[in-house]
Design goal:
Blueprint: H1 25-51, H2 62-83, H3 92-95, H4 102-125, H5 131-135, H6 137-150, H7 152-160, H8 166-179, H9 205-230, H10 238-253, H11 258-285, H12 292-315, H13 322-343
Helix pairs in contact: 1-2, 1-8, 1-10, 2-4, 4-6, 6-8, 7-8, 8-10, 9-10, 9-12, 9-13, 10-11, 11-12, 12-13
Keywords: Membrane, Transmembrane, Transmembrane helix
Length: about 375
């Protein structure tokens, strides 16, 4: 297994038909902005479900309005990108998608179907509360579709292989994709847990276990997407952007509780430190260095959890034992390293052994008569 290998995306979702130009940076930017409206609508809807559930009646709410306005804008723009390329692809609905956008178009259709199912669910069974909202089938399908829809610019960036300013839309799309599942994972988010601030007693160990689980799930949610970018286009600030986006999503829903906000700032500092260290390591060791991705996952996982615990300690004090506190940091580090190993490209099959060159037979020297010597 190799742990490096920056490459372009050649997956079916990124392949486009001949004659169809890829999306421009401006086109990707419009997709990101409309996806941000969709994400803001989902964030506001999560806030409403958390804080003013008693005033919500049915499906038609201002928060759903913002959510579906963002969806309509993103879906319409996605289909427009294929339609405007109909000159090179007369069957644009099949062949006109820019690289990375075909999957987004399919996701737009499934999002619409999930939205209709959510409408029927709300009107017949009522508004979901707590875990019911997180596990509602229509919400799960909406969330999965949203992830694929808002990450079209990310796949477009991977397919193009560009760096520099083009990285901004790619990383922004990645952050939106990571934020989307957060609304369904708040019950197990490290950015909302206060478990480390409570003493682990004989009857309170279950709460500590749930806190450890929250750290591991959050590490998985953040380190996994980070590594997918780091293996293709190492971009400074990706880790910090992911932490900031997901933490913002969780904190808005609960109106920025002070202790959790300080802890999130600590995690943001840890992620920024990981970004800086990884940038320096790439400058010194190169992008093809051994164990590059396991090291990247370990640094981000360990430092963001250590930073979060530091923020909690400063804001409210950490009452976990040193063994549990240190152990959760080690677990996050190991999980990040494992994810890095899984994200690494496997080494190709060994080629045939070189065939040794055939020995050239020596040509015996002809005898020369003594008289001619």
């Amino acid at each position: 297994m190799t742990s490096s290998g920056v490459r372009h995306d050649t997956s079916p979702s990124a392949v486009t038909s001949p004659g169809v130009p890829p999306a421009t940076r401006r086109e990707d930017l419009v997709t990101v902005l409309s996806g941000a409206v969709l994400t803001a609508g989902a964030m506001s809807d999560g806030w409403a479900h958390t804080n003013i559930i008693e005033t919500i009646e049915g499906f038609f709410t201002p928060w759903h309005g913002l959510l579906y306005a963002g969806f309509v804008a993103t879906a319409a723009w996605t289909f427009w990108l294929a339609y405007r390329r109909r000159g090179g692809a007369p069957r644009w609905w099949r062949d006109g998608w820019p690289a990375g956008y075909r999957v987004g178009a399919i996701a737009a259709v499934t999002f619409l179907l999930a939205g209709l199912a959510d409408l029927a669910w709300h009107e017949t069974l009522g508004v979901e509360v707590g875990l019911d909202a997180a596990f509602s089938p229509s919400h799960l399908l909406l969330d999965a579709s949203a992830v694929l829809l808002v990450t079209s610019p990310l796949r477009s960036w991977w397919a193009g292989g560009e760096g520099g300013a083009r990285s901004v839309t790619g990383v922004a799309s990645l952050v939106l994709g990571a934020m989307a599942p957060s609304i369904l994972l708040t019950y197990a988010s490290a950015f909302l847990t206060l478990a480390p601030t409570r003493t682990i007693g004989l009857g309170a160990q279950q709460q500590a276990v749930l806190g450890v689980d929250a750290y591991l799930l959050t590490t998985l949610l953040l380190v996994g997407p980070f590594l997918l970018v780091h293996r293709r286009h190492a971009t400074v600030g990706t880790g910090a952007a992911l932490v900031a986006g997901v933490a913002l999503y969780d904190l808005v829903m609960h109106e920025f509780p002070a202790t959790q906000t300080w802890a999130a700032l600590g995690a943001l500092g840890g992620a920024a430190l990981a970004d800086a260290l990884l940038w320096r390591l790439d400058a010194v060791r190169g992008p093809a260095a051994p164990l590059r991705l396991p090291l990247a996952g370990a640094l981000l996982g360990g430092l963001l959890v250590a930073g979060h615990l530091t923020g909690l300690a400063l804001a409210a004090g950490v009452r976990w034992t040193p063994e549990v506190t240190g152990g959760v940091v080690v677990l996050a580090t190991l999980l990040g390293a494992l994810l890095g190993g899984l994200a690494a490209r496997p080494a190709g099959p060994a080629g045939p052994a070189p065939v040794p060159a055939a020995a050239t037979p020596a040509v015996p020297a002809q005898a020369v008569p003594l008289g001619r010597r």
